[in-house]
Structure formats: C-alpha cells, structure tokens
Amino acid sequence: MSVTYTPMLEQYREIKSKHVHEILFFRLGDFYEMFFEDAELASRELEITLTSREAGQNQRIPMCGIPYHAAENYIARLIAKGYKVAICEQVEDPKLVKGLVKREVIKIITPGTVLTEALLPDAANNYLAALYEEEDVLYLAAADISTGECMWALFKGASRLSALLDHLFHLMPAELILASSIKNLADLTGFIESRIPHCSTTNVMLDDSASINNLPKQHFSKEELPDSGGALLAVASLLYYLHQTVKTDLSHINHLVKYNSSDYLILDAATLRNLEITRNMRDGSKRDTLLSVLDFTKTAMGGRLLKKWLEYPLINQSQIIRRQEAVAELIEKPAARAAISECMASIYDFERILTRLEVGTANARDLVALRSSLEALPEIKAQLKDMSASLFSHAGMSIMTHSDVSSLIGSAIVDNPPLSVREGGMIKAGYDLELDELRSISHDSKQWIQNLETTEREK
User: Fold this and answer.
1) How much is the pTM?
2) Comparing C-alpha atoms, which of 130, 149, 153, 165 is closest to residue 259?
3) What is the CA radius of gyration of the chain?
4) Which tens digits make up the pLDDT trace of 182-226?
C-alpha cells in the first residue's frame, strides 16, 4: 500500500531522490531539517535530538534540525567524517508565494570541494583528484578548489600503479573520483585505507558528451591542454564533478600544469613516510618532522609552498642555483630580509580569499584581510626592486599593488566588521549618504519624524 505524504514531504522526497549519496539539508524557515534515514544518521553523528513529524495519514517520520545560521559548524563535522552534504534552499520569497515554496539544491559540499575556512588546513592543500585508466596508462588530475591550483599526470609501464600511489601519498587528496573502471582497484583501495584514511572515494562514470569534453577548453589555454585523450578525460571528469557540486563560478581554476617526474627527485611513499619529511609516523602530523624544523614562513601560502619543495626536491641544476642565489642574497642583506619578513606577517591567505570572492562565499572580514594584505605589497615590491637574484627581480616586476582596490575597501568597510551581512554595521559612516540616512531612521526614528515634520511645516 502506497503512502501519501504531505506536499512538503513529497517535495523533499523528490529532491532527495536526486541526492541519494548526500545528507540533504532541507531549508524550512530558520532551520535546515533532515528527515527519514538522513535524520537518523545526522542525529547520531552530530549528537542532536531526534524527533518526529506528522507525515500525513496519521503517520510520523524521523526528523531532526539545526539553525541555518549555525549550519557551518555542523557541516564541518559531517565533512570531517567523510560525508557529503547537499544544501537545499528556498528559491522563492515565502511572503510572495501562495502554497508550497520552491526549493532547489544550490550546492553540494564534499571533502574535496569544501571552501569553509575552518575545514581547510592552512599549511596544506585540500586536493580533489580524478583517476582514469586506459589500456596500460593511468591518468590523474587533481585540483585544490580553495587555491585554484590544477595539475595532471600520467603513469605507464609495469610500475604505473606504484608510481601513482606514491604521487597520491604526496598529494594526500581529501577525495578521489574514479572516472573509469580500475584494473587494480583492490590494491588502490587498500593503499588509501592504510595510508590516506581520510580520503573518500566517489565513482563518477561519465558519458562521452561534447559538453563534458569541452570543459577543459573553457578553463585552460590551448597550450596547457594535454595532448592525450585519456588525460583530457581525467581533467574533464574532475571539472565536471566540481561544476556539479559547487554549482557556481569556477573561473579561478584557469591554469593547468603537468607533473613531470623527471623534474624532481622521486621520493616514494615509504621514503617520505620513514624519513618523516612532512608527516610523522605517529599521527601523521607535522610535529617533529623536517618541515617543522625548517618552517619559519609568515604566510599560509609560504607554508604550503615549502611543503611542496620538500616533497618534490629539484634535480635541475640551474633551478637549484637560482634558489641558492636568492637565499644567499637574503643572508647578505639582513635589513632587507627583516623588512620583507615584517611585511609578510601582515599578509593573509591571498589564494583562498580570492577564491571565496570568486565563488561568492566571502564576507566582510575577508575584504578587510584582503586590504591588509594589499597594503603590504608596495613595500615588498620596493624591497625586491633592489635585489639582484633573478627569483626576486622577476617577482618584484610581477607584483601588482592594486592600490585602488585597497583604498576602496578601506573607505567602505569598517575595521572590525561582523561575520554576517544580516548583523549589519559593516559599511563605514560617510561612505553612502542614503545608507547613513536609513541608519539614522532606524536608530532614532522619533527624531527623524520630528525633523521631517519641521521640514514639511516650513514648506
């Protein structure tokens, strides 16, 4: 006997049927509600009260909910446990609609697509990787959506799986997409479970449609695109998954690089682990590693770069000499070194701030952090101008100070803005006269009415 649910629950069931593998956060007023199996799962994992709701025909169903303004912390806990969350919002104003409000999933948050600052490690990337196998070649594409970095690699020959696993151990992806059937799937999953236990695996088998195959061309220049069809499919699969989950502008992913093993000294997973270069053997953290001894970086971006340099040592002599010349000049010029270091201390995570701006999740505090970071650039550029090492001279010429942007933010945004737009008070007084007038009305309506009455009498 079929069950007839209320119209709202029928709407929920229809949306949920398209998101079977995600926990559906269903917006009802000021709450995100979960029903049926999702409610039981979320109640257990988040340790929140499981209640029930009238579902029609004298039936009750499991239900639990969280305030929408506190959702970020709950989502973070679920993502950290490897779950995926689909955010379903009201896309119509309830005051203007008669009957059921239209709802849609506006984004899907997965371990490899998170943009929430609290979920992202400062000094490490958060990679989403896609794997595609064709005959005797394994193709890997990986992107960190929080920084916009994107790369691809291929592994072939008898040792291709071993080389792939070593590279995955370097990347430590939060999520791996399987874009085709994998011959040695058991070995792959066994390695992930033992060496990258936090990595979740998702199967995404794509059809060979033109829209999917054109995705790499929309993001990257012709010169950067792989000349291999298998590599293109790996990159396309990665981009398709990102578009399907994030559901927003991804134009910041616009540079694709190829990983060439011949450019670096190969450190396999066992070597990297046993030498404790970036992760210790006890708990996988940075503590008591070579990285912890060397890391005196002032910015999160510098921390991530130093980690890459240690995991991928150069073997090209000219590139090694360029770095040595830069280090030598800093040693010879302690005043310049101290000045640059001081400026670096006021620079926030440019890469991730700009990404949040691109995808529309930034807040006013991100803008203040961006202003502070931009204001440090002129002094850094001036210091680098007097440097002779090629790394520094090139960087000095490449830096754009964007003084117009920092001035605009400084004149418009208060120094200590609230976290949410709903709290108000983030725009400086004097920046917009109309806004100032509206604030005056809201703060002292009686005085405003008296002034209006006086003005009208004079007229």
Assistant:
1) 0.87
2) 153
3) 26
4) 998 999 999 999 999 889 998 887 766 666 778 999 999 999 999
